[in-house]
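Journal club side-thread
Mid-discussion, someone asked how the predicted structure for our own chain would compare to the paper's figures. Pasting it here so we can look after the session.
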Amino acid sequence: MRARLGGWFFWAWGGVVLTGCVQARSDDFLEREREERPVGPVTKTPPPPPPKDLIPTTPPPPFDAYAKADSLSDDLACVKSVSELEAQARQDDAFALLVACAGEEKWRDLRRLLGPPWRGRLGKMPEDQGMVLLGRVIATRGGLFESDVRLCNLNRLELQPLTEAFQGRGLRAGSWVIFRAFAGRERTSKKDRRVELKELSRGEGDRGVDETGATITAYLPANLPPIEEGGQYIVVGRLDGAVGTNSEGYPHTKLKAVGLFRPGRTMPDLSP
């Protein structure tokens, strides 16, 4: 009996000592936690940003070449803007801006249009659109087109002065021609639009301008703006028939015009 009481006492005493040790260690842990706990509000560390390829982006608006051309002051500004787009490897936008600038009479650099890389782009355009572009640029340069036509021919563009047809130098129906002319009254019917033109020619060394006596019946596309009677134009079109003579004995022919352009300021406007 005495042995049992001794064992029980020993077990009870050991439990008290163990509990005291555990309590002491727990108090020490809590004290250290209080000392290590930061004073003030706890701030949360922000999560890392998502990878750039997972961030949704808004695509840039499509390039508006005509709005850009309208905002540019002159042909020098157009050349600069086209060059900047080329430097950014935006070839499509650069050529679109060139075409838009030509439509605004703000592109005069024919050599650049006919050189790389634009000569290839010009060749891929529908033929009538390419000839309209050439006509616009030549007219903007002033309409002194003899040297401009030679430059076109050197770059394998078949555009000839109308005089070549009148002088019997092998131009046939379907040939592309360019010439200066005074416009007569435009006539419209259910079948077509047409205008009678009087060819103009420059004198020796481009010092004089006069009518040649030759006349042309030009059939106009439906989308061409109204023609000003008596106005002077640079005309681009396809021959549509053989060369005959008019009532005064001068050459006369017919053609399908793709563009009539008022000449730039470097060419005197002789309109009455």
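Post-session note: Confidence is low (pLDDT under 50) at residues 1-22, 203-207, 265-272.
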